Each structure stands twice: as structure tokens, then as C-alpha cells.
């Protein structure tokens, strides 16, 4: 409850101007409408946040009120009533008596209209915040599938969702989070598919957030995670509306917000790390094989350097003799123990990657390629590292990028460092202890009640159709366990594997 | 609570700092490729010779290349094998690693005296595998074989292991692995048999190695060494070697020569393929008899004499009979050699009797040494020649054939 | 951190039916293929596998009795039931003895893992180092709770199967079935008596049944079948090892070694390119043993928690047990030959007494005092 607006136009104008200071972009337009001396009024908006094109239409409509033959007797003491009843130029229009709410509305890009003599202010939703139009998503490209991605405008994003999901039971619950940013955060789910207890839990968590601002999805993510202290606790997210809608239809909940094209998807399980949207558009056999490839990449990225270090420093008996001889030959003259070498190469690789991110697009490609090649080649020729080290580190680094969710590849690159150090100092003991620890930790995580490793730990055979393989669409008749029990079936029972018509075709 | 977690984490991390005892970089290791054990000049001591791979000469990529030999030989003496190995560290600059050792060669004089130290050390040690090959240096010292360049590989140790791996091709020596030898050594119903390597002159091919050119020797597989208790008592030759493989049911593939029919001094070559060897036993009175039943397929691989008198079927029948006779003769020769000359059960007779006649074995096993030469053996061989390699009729020079 | 189990033993910690089977499968495997096989080979030679099979069959025969007892504890766990059956002080004593059994069982399980690595792969590192490191890992697992152990056991079983398959593939060419003959070479009675050595492994599963079954999700009517499946599957995998060890290396050779399975692993060779892959096998083996260790230590902690006044936090108990078993493991395992003798003589006797004798005694008491059963009781714990 803030400052109440008064019928006195001047005091209202004073208040608004005082709240905004001498802001350059505050548009203040006074006018007079109505017959017989007229009523004074004032319009406020923020230039750049509102639709100035439609302002003209609004203005025309207002001014039309003062022209004959539109003479009306004074209806009520409140001129706002009349304006509200007749104005049609704006879509969503409402009246507000709290001046702070008016300020908030102006900040959102809406138009505020004051009339002398009315204690109410009218707020018209003619927002047009600056932003880009729908473009191809920058991070999750697929060769076969839609190319539209979310943008920073949350209304546009909802539109992209709506066009795919013309179900009236799609619920969008709005919250403004962030004391100073008041970012629009929308909780999206399909009523009847998402479990009500999960939805209410998410609501509670979101409402509990009390921060200054929400500038990106990561802010919200870290504040609503089940496992904030675990590196594996990150949530699934996407820039693609089709991925979000697919998850909504499986009973999950999405969090879409303003100012970021990334939407969060909860709950997240480990197997999401291997699911790419393109899997569902390509042939299922191909998709399944590529899923295995991604799992292999994860393994390679996580334990590749560790195994190499372990074999080279501790357990030479494991290496087949010809390879052992080449490895020994490669190590001749290198000054550092394998662990330090691998760490140095890993750090170099990370530096190249990070530098590649920061370089302007014009020079980025060249410098990163040159950097990688030159450094790798030079290090070997100078005798600083063994050639095998460069291969292993580069291979592991690349393998990490095969994962569809970019943040998961970053997590992998992070987690493999302690594992590497353990293997390099404690050999196979360090390796198995490290991996056991990781496995136990992953097995203990839960997201919104769903175990992180399910459906493989605990095993639920009926749920495995989208985990290790991507079963063909004619087999995926049921939703995953996260969805509401009563809505398990998602395909008609009569749908079988497609087959040619009986009796042959001529 | 948070402090406890911190303490626990620090304790865990402290473990990392305590040092890496087992860490050895590969360029500080000497990978042993072959090892030879001999009696040292001083009585009671043992001499160990190792053949170590030199990786820089192996290096395929760019790297500092030190021209020269691909292996490095080192010899040292000691009271025990382990002591001798430790003495090697007095001058080898790297730590010796046994994990890639291919073969253990035992000098003849040591084998004739006592093979126990070799078997004990190499199976007790945790760095060695059970599948390492074992061979006896026949007629020479193990050191000579370890230092001789053999075969086509850069590293002679690898060549030697390949020799033993493919020993079934000449079909005259057993493929003796450390595990087998240990098993035979420990089992009350078995005796060790070990392949033998002999140094023989090689054909005069030019070689880069001046030492080799001088001596011109190479290691050659040469029969099987039979052991009685812990001592070497004899070697098998040619036919007897083959017969031994038949008896031990380790024959897989061999090429035998059968004489051509009367009127020709040449031979025919028959390749034995996939034999099935069955040994049955029976006790008559107090004497056990072993019945060897051999059934094998064969290919006629080479025919060095014309046989215009034979049609295909008759030729095959002739060859089958000749081969059966040949195999039976080999087996009988081997049995005789073991029973009469060496008086040692190198053919696993005891194992068969133990398995098939447990009651008899339990009663008589303490007297096995004297009973063994009295065991009777019968051989029944059936041969089926499936094909004559690619030919479907005997090769005859442009003459009228008989049908 | 994850949802660490902070609940009391009477609460609804649940493991699935399949997880029960896999836990059982993992509980027996670790020590059996190495130490027990070696000890059996020393005692009865080529009848190792027969003695092993007898032990498994005996275990399976005892399961119905355990299940019967466990069913009477449904709803509130073994702890409360025992206290009700025997009275508080005696019940607490029995719980502590039982917990002590699990503690020593954990020590043998942990020694399996640490000795494997210390004796074969990393010989220079001091033994105590492995003991402490491994115990810390297991303490973390126990702290996370039974559900995590259940999930881990599925993974552990998968690794165990892979391990067995890779061993078979690598040793197949040297398999000589005649080594297994003649049957019962050493006599029937000695073979049966020797199966006591294998009871040290099977007994762990049988005893754990009493503790774990009330937490299982499956309906009590299926418990016997589930336990049998668990024992049977682990029995088959262990027997494969026993048979292969005898048939490829021979009983005399296996008897020479304390950790027979590692020699077996060293004799396996997958073509000339992968001629020595026992390290991969150790890695796979390790996850199964971790599950075994976590479950045994968990049982020890759970039972101690029930015996002592309820105000002690579980994490302290876990830490306490961990600290207690470190010197125990070291004392048992540092002198290898003494450890071998312990595993061959002392421990089988203690095992049979505590895992067969004690529960059977409890069954007897329960028969005489049916009023202590869960049915009809409205109070929980």
C-alpha cells in the first residue's frame, strides 16, 4: 500500500515526477478533454518501453471525447468512468488508486492516465519493450527440428509455447521476483499432468525468493535447487520452446522469465544430460546410438584423463606392451610427472576455451584453432609433454562438449579435476574411491522428490523407454512417473506400430 | 556441524598430501622383455640376465633418437634370484619392471640341478603374470639365449614369446606357461614339462648387428624338457616330442610326413587338424592300462611322388592308414621314452588315473614312481582325410590316369 | 547435500524388491571369490566348488526361518521387536552382539578391498592409508542411508557381472574340466565341514536379511523368493569363479595364494593386445565390495542405534563405528598369514554361531512368546 492518488491532478503529477527524478525517458503529456472547459489530464509513460505508435491512436480516442457530436452529460463526479467506458484503443485497461502501483506500471512500460477530479488512475497496457525478434536459438541447434528460440520478452515466449500447446489447461502463474528488478517470472505447467504437490512446492520456493534482481535464469536456478551445495544439482534448462513443451507434456514444470531466453525445467534427472531435442525428430535407432555416444563421451570426459594418468604413473602393467613402449618413448625427456602434465594441459585447454568465448567473432575462429594446434604441437616438440597427454586431454575436453546441456558439460569439466588429482596421487585406489564417492553422491540426490538417477537407480522398468534408448514413438504410450498418476496414458490404445495395409497395395 | 564437516574434509584432503609411494613415471622404468636365470660361476649363487627395451630407439614420432640397439642387456649375480635382481640396480639406472616380461629362460645346468628357485620366485612375486612363457636353454646358458637376436622383431624377447605362442605350428614342443609349470610342480599327480630353446646357426643373412654377424646364432625351439621332481632329466626329439603332445592331449595341429608308396623315396605331407584325443583307463589285476583313442581330421597337403596307381579314394585310404600308423608310432615312442629312458611321468598318466580310477590312485599313489614304467598303453587311431587342400585328384604329369 | 537419512530405524526407509535382490547378490560376492576360494582350495582341493555350493544351499535353507522372524517385525523393525521379545536389557545386549558381528564382517569386507589393492596394485603404500581412506568412503555411504546403498547395489551387480564375464572370456581357453574330477576327491565329510569357511560370506546375507527385510517394499509373501533369488544369483557368480579357478589354474596353485581371485585375474588374457587387464577387473570388483561394506556397516550402525538411548545422532554413531573399525581392520589385515588363519578357523566358527545360531535361537524364543509379535500392536516403536 503506497501513496494513494488524489483527485488533485497536480499532486499526482508531482508525485510521479518526484519518483522518477529527472529521468530523460519519462514522457509527460498534458491535455484537456471534454466539453465545457474540459477536464485536464496527464499521460505518463516511459519512452522506449512503450508503444509510441499506439499512443497516437490512444490520443485520438481521448481527444474524440471532447468533440461533438459526442457530447454527453457529466455522468458522474469521476470523469475516469466515462473515459474507461468509451476508450477502446488499448487492450488491457484498468484503474488503480495506489500511486506506487502506477509507478510500477509505468516502469513496466504501460501508460498511466490521470484526470483532474478523479482519484483513480488508468493504466493501459501498451507495452513494447525493446528486444530482438524470434531467432534461431544460439546454443541448442538441431539439424532437424524447429528453429525458433525463446527471446528476452516473456510475453513472446509464452506465445511460442501457446502456439505449440493449444490446451486450455496450460497454466501460467505470474510472479514478480526481485525487489529492484521486479522481473516477470512465470511458472508454467499443464494442469492435470503435473502433480499438484510439485506445483505448490515450486510456487512456495519461488515466492520465498527475496533478492535484489533476477538478471538471468541462473539466479532463480540456484535459489530453488534441491541440492544447492552439490555440483550435480543444476537444473535442466532450454532455449527451445519445443523442448520445454515436450517436458511440460511429460508432467514437468517450467519456469519462464523475462530478460533471458533460457527457461528452467524441473525436476531434472541425470538422464536429461543425454537427451537432445533432435533425438525425437530423428529416426529412433539413430537417436539411440547417438545417446550411447553421448554417454560414452561423458565417461571419456570424466575419467579419460584420470585413467591415462593412473596408467602412466602407477599401473604400467595394464598397458599392452607395444603401447607401453610407445608411451615410454613418448615420455623420454619430459620433465614433469604425468599428473602435472595432464593438469597443465587441461588448464591450457580451458584457457583456450575461455579465450575463445571472449574473442570478438571476427578473430575468434582463427585464434582458437591456431592456439590449440600450435600449443599442442609445440609442447610435444619441445619435449614438454608426451604426445599421448595432448591427445588424451584434447579428446576428453572435446568429449565434454558432446553433451546437449551446456552447463552439464561444464560440470563434467569441473568434476574431472578432483578425480584427476585423486587418480594421479593415489593411483587406482584414488580412482575407485573418487568414482564411488561420485556415484554415491549422485545416487543420494533428489529433485522435487524424484531420485536423480531414476529410472535406473531405483530401477523402474516401465520408465526406461526414454533413458538408455529412444524408443520409437509408437511404443511410448505412457508418461514418465513424474506425471500425475491418472494421466499416465498419452497415446491412444489403438496405436500400434505402423505397418502397410493388409492385403497388399497395388 | 559445519565445523565437523570442515574437519572431516581437511582430514580427507590431508591424505592426499601424504605422498605417493607407488608413483613411478614410465621414463624411470626399465621394461624387462626377457630374463634368463643361470648358475653363477661361484657355486651356490645365481646369475640373472635381463633384456630391457630401450624406448627411445622404438619411438616412432619425433623425439630425440639415440641410434643403437633396441635392447639393453644387464647381468648380475646373487645368492638368490631376488638378490641378483637387486644387484642389477647397482648399475642399471632405472627401476626394473617385470610387468611386461615375456619369457623366463632357465639355463640347462641350473635346471639339471634344481628348478625350484625359478618357479618359486616368479610365481610369488606380484609383478609377474601367470601367463609368462618358460623355456629351458638347451645346451647353453640362458644368458646366451637372452642376448641373441632372434626372429623378426626389434626386441628379441618379443620374438621368443611369439615362438612359443605359435609352438603348435611345428608341433614338437609344449607351450609352457608359468601357471602350467607351477601347477605341475605343486600337483602330486603331475610333473613339469617345459619347452626347450637351442642356439643354432642361422642362415647367413646380412645383419646390422656386428655381434650377431660374428656368431650367427639364433634361438630355435627344440623339443620339450622333462623334469623328474625338480631336476631336468631329458629332452624329447622330433617324433617323441610330437608323441608327447599327443599323450598330453595338447596336440592341435601338426604336419606329419608319411612315406610314399613303394618305389619312391619321397614323402607326403599330411596336416592333422582338430584331433580329438580320449584317454580311458582300466585296471587289470594290479596294472593299469591307458587306452589312447585318437580321432582326427586331416588334409593331404603335399604329395611329392606320383601315384598313378591310385585313384583319389585309394590315395586317401592309403594316406589315412599311413598317418594312423605314424601317429600310433609317435605315441608308442613317446611312451617308451618316458617309461624306459626317463622313468618320469611327463604325460599326465597319473592325472588320468587319479581322475578315472580314484580308488586305485588313493591306494597306490605313494608307489607311483615304481609303478609308472609298468603302466601299459594302447593306441587306437582313426584318421579321416577330408580334403587334399584344393586338389580333387592326385597330380599326375600328362599321362593316362587310372580311374 | 543429498537427502541424508536422518530418520529413526523404525521409519519408512524403503528399498525396492529388485534392490533387495541386488543387495543380497552383492553381500556375498566380494570376499568369497578370493579369500574363501583360496582357503577352501587349501582345505579340500578340487572340491572347492562343492563346498561353496553347499554353503549357499544351506544359506538358502535358512532363509525361510529368517523371513519368518522378519515378518514378525514388520512395521517397526528388528530393534523394537527384539526389545519387546527379550526385554530391554537383554534385547539391547543381543542387538549389540549382532552389531558387533556386522562390525567384524565389515572389517573383513573392507580388508578385501584394501588388500586387493595393497598386495597387487600398489604395494609401497602403507596399509593403514588404504584402511583409513576406504573407511572414510564407506562412512559417507552409510551416512547417506540405505536407499543409496540400494541404488548402488544395482550398479555393483552390473559391474560384478561384467567382471565375471570378462574373466570367463579371458580364461576360457585354459579351462580344463578334468581338473574338477574326481568328485569329492577329499571325502564327503571334510567337504561339508569345509563349507563352514564359505559360511562367513553367505552368513552376511542371511543375517542382513533380518535387518533389511522390514525395509523392503516388496510384499512379505515374496520375501523368501526374493532372498532366494539374491542368494542364487550371487551363488552362481561365485561358483563360476570357483569352478574356473580350479579348472584353469588347479587347486594346488589356488591354495598357494591368499587372494586367489587376483591370480585368476592375472591368468586371464584377452588376446595378445589386452594381456593383462586385472586392473579393470579390480575397478569393477571394487564397486561390488563397496556395496557390501556399506550395507554391513549400515547394519552395525542401525543395530547399535537401537541398543543405545535414542538421543545419539546417527552421524556420531557412523563416525564412531568408522573410528572403531579402523584399528580392527588394521589388526586383522596387516599380517596376511594371520589373517588367513583367522578367516579359516576363528571367523567361520563365530560366523556360524552368530548368523545361524543366534537367529535360530531367537526364532525359538519367538515361538515360545508369540505375544511379542507385531500383529495386533497399535503402538509403533
Commentary on this structure:
Helix content of chain A is 43%, strand content 12%. Chain A has 506 residues and is an alpha+beta fold. Chain A folds into three domains: 9-124, no CATH class; 154-268, no CATH class; 282-450, no CATH class. Chain A has a five-stranded antiparallel β-sheet, with helices on both faces. In chain A, helix 9 packs across helix 14 (406-444) and helix 11 (338-358) packs across helix 13. The model of chain A has no long low-confidence stretch (mean pLDDT 85). In chain B, strands 1, 2, 3, 4, 5, 6, 7, 8 and 9 form a nine-stranded mixed β-sheet that branches. A four-stranded mixed β-sheet of chain B has the order 10-11-12-13, sandwiched between helices. In chain B, helix 5 packs across helix 8 and helix 10 packs across helix 11. Chain B starts with a helix and ends in a 16-residue tail after the last strand. Helix content of chain B is 33%, strand content 30%. Chain B has two domains: 24-235, no CATH class; 249-403, Nutrient germinant receptor protein C, domain 3 (GMP Synthetase, Chain A, domain 3). With 403 residues, chain B is of the alpha/beta class. Chain B has 14 helices and 13 strands. Chain C has 381 residues and is mainly α. Helices cover 76% and strands 0% of the residues of chain C. Residues 1-10 and 374-381 of chain C have low confidence and may be disordered. Chain A binds chain C through residues 227, 229-230, 314-315, 317-318, 320-321, 426-429, 431-433, 436-437, 439-441, 443-446, 451, 453, 456-459, and chain C through 1-4, 16, 18-19, 117, 121-122, 125, 130, 133-134, 137, 140-141, 144-145, 147-148, 150-152, 154-155, 272-280, 282-283, 286-287, 290.
